[in-house]
Amino acid sequence: MEKLIDPFGRTINYLRLSITEHCNLNCFYCRSEPEGCRAVTKDKILTAEECLNIAEAAVELGMTRIRLTGGEPLVHPDITDIIFRLSRIDGLKDLSLTTNGVFLETMAFKLAEAGLDRVNISLDSLDEETYRQITRGGKLLKTLKGIEKSLQAGLNPVKLNVVLLKGINADEIRRFIELTLDKALDVRFIEYMPFHGHKNWHQYFLPLDKVMEIAASIAPLVPVKGEHGGPARYYRLEGALGKIGVIYSLSRHICSVCNRLRVTPAGTIKPCLFSDDEIDLQLSLSDKEELKEKLREAIKFKSDPTKVYGDPLDRVKQFQVKRPMTQIGG
Ligand code: SAM
């Protein structure tokens, strides 16, 4: 079986497939300003057939894990069909989804039956008003119900993604960590990244050291091995059911463990989150052999993990990726 190994020796076995730019929420740090939701055009969506072709090509090249993301993948009109078809690809070992969780209350069981293995749910606040402000209109209760339904549906593990935002949710770190004590949830803290040249990055950026400090003050922390490699580091509070994850997106060098390629809903491959390089797939979306060729080409554009950025502050300043996250897929 062929494998995708980049010029720096990293095995690339994980595809993030962003299937639509559309989203039902409008999180301020994810969208471009000032366009917000209105920036989404009708054509920035991959069809079920295109998703299947890309996924099959990736698996034939040795990729074993696919995450569906967006925009919001659950607003894609064919999401259940996409999951059903992808989950039946021979050789695909792990099919997951990143979602804001709003629709999971009604969809979690259907998605699990279709073949979804697990979910990551974005939840940046446990306070109704703060949640509403971050998402510009979202209702916290909907996502909380979606989390419960995902656990009941047997999606395993259920991970919560918390983007740490100075002055907005940093005072909730303890509450988030304590969720892991009696629930089988993995709560993952992610450093804010200033996409789309967000000028006010210093207003929100907070290194994750704060999280580790607070966690250690609650109970002894035991390092645990993550199931899938990649940049997340996991710990368990002694006796807790769930785990804490930390993703030092900017304050530490994590490129050496990068194992992924991203496909955007505009039909491009994005080899590196820290770079604007993209490879156009538009003319290849219906041809699996051409897609494989493009994927092989894309790994040549993976960045040199030893050369990309200097110290943490430099990395934040240099992080000037043109597309906002909603057009890339986190
Ligand atoms: N709509 C889905 C959701 O809300 O999870 C999937 C798409 S969203 C772009 C995927 C992930 O990217 C979310 O966990 C979100 O918090 C993260 N994200 C978006 N913008 C980010 C930023 N500027 N810095 C760090 N993480 C970001």
Per-chain topology:
Blueprint (H helix, E strand, L loop, with lengths): L13 E7 L27 H13 L4 E6 L8 H9 L6 E6 L4 H11 L3 E5 L5 H8 L4 H13 L5 E7 L8 H10 L2 E7 L9 H4 L4 H10 L2 E4 L8 E5 L5 E5 L12 E4 L4 E3 L8 E2 L7 H11 L13 H7 L6 H4 L2
Parallel strand pairs: 1-2, 1-10, 2-3, 3-4, 4-5, 5-6, 6-9
Antiparallel strand pairs: 7-8, 8-9, 10-11, 11-12
The structure holds S-adenosylmethionine.
Task: Give a description of the structure.
With 330 residues, this protein is α/β, with parallel strands linked by helices. It has a domain at 14-156 and 254-327: TIM Barrel (Alpha-Beta Barrel), CATH 3.20.20. It contains eleven helices and twelve strands. Strands 7-8-9-6-5-4-3-2-1-10-11-12 form a twelve-stranded mixed β-sheet. β8 and β9 form a beta hairpin. α6 (173-182) packs across α8 (209-218). The longest helix is centred in the first third of the chain and has 13 residues, at 48-60. The protein starts with 13 loop residues before the first strand and ends with a helix. The structure holds S-adenosylmethionine.
In short:
The chain is an alpha/beta fold and 330 residues long.
**CATH-level-4 superfamily name of the domain at 14-156 and 254-327:** Aldolase class I
Count every beta strand, where a strand is a DSSP E run of 2 or more residues: 12
Would you identify the CATH architecture of the domain at 14-156 and 254-327?
Alpha-Beta Barrel
CATH third-level topology of the domain at 14-156 and 254-327? TIM Barrel
Q: Which small-molecule species are bound to the chains here?
A: S-adenosylmethionine
Q: Order of strands across the biggest sheet? A: 7-8-9-6-5-4-3-2-1-10-11-12
Oligomer: single chain
